[in-house]
């Protein structure tokens, strides 16, 4: 009677080929997962911007989105990756005061992701009743939010451009580093 099975040489070859395939495939999989996390985080911000804009139009009053770690008030320091809130700003001061409804409280982004902004959109993004962005002073507000994975090397990122009419637009980019 003939017995069938794999020889030691055949098993070794299969293991070697499997190791090579895994060595090639795992970095690609990690890159795919990181790109998905980055896109998801940018989409969360864009979705919240759309909500803020639609609430301002619906309520015919100012609505604000600001960084918030606590989920109940705007943060005095830190960036957007710590989380954010959307609220109805009845007194136009870009701060949550008594009687102003918090519409959305978003938790911090996953560890390793950063979301930053500079200029007039660093502390808050405010939509007026017409759906355009306005600072509390009444000046137009436009800016860019940047979402990236922490790295000291060149890294893929998403930029969210907020036009002076209040519409957000997303674009892929590569940054020299992401602090």
CATH class: Alpha Beta
Work out the helicity level. 25-40%
CATH topology: minor pseudopilin epsh fold
Number of helices: 1
CATH homologous superfamily descriptor: minor pseudopilin epsh domain
Low confidence ranges: none
The amount of beta strand, in percent, is 25-35%
Order of strands side by side in the largest beta sheet?
A: 3-2-1-5
Give the topology string: H per helix, E per strand: HEEEEEEEE
The average pLDDT score comes to: 92
Largest sheet, strands/sense/barrel: 4 strands, antiparallel
Shape: elongated
By secondary-structure content and strand pairing, the structural class works out as alpha+beta
| CATH 2nd-level architecture | 3-Layer(bab) Sandwich
Q: What is the total number of structural domains?
A: 1
Radius of gyration: 23 Å
Terminal CA distance: 68 Å
Strand runs, count: 8
Could you explain the architecture of this structure?
By secondary structure, the protein is α+β, with helices and mostly antiparallel strands. It has one domain: minor pseudopilin epsh domain (minor pseudopilin epsh fold, 3-Layer(bab) Sandwich), CATH 3.55.40.10. It is built from one helix and eight strands. The chain has one helix at 8-59; strands at residues 63-67, 84-88, 102-106, 113-117, 125-127, 143-149, 155-162, 168-175. The strands form two sheets. The chain has a four-stranded antiparallel beta sheet with strand order 3-2-1-5, covered by helices on one side. A four-stranded antiparallel beta sheet has the order 4-6-7-8, covered by helices on one side. A hairpin with a 5-residue loop joins strand 6 and strand 7 (155-162). The radius of gyration is 23 Å and the shape is elongated. It starts with 7 loop residues before the first helix and ends with a strand. The mean pLDDT is 92.
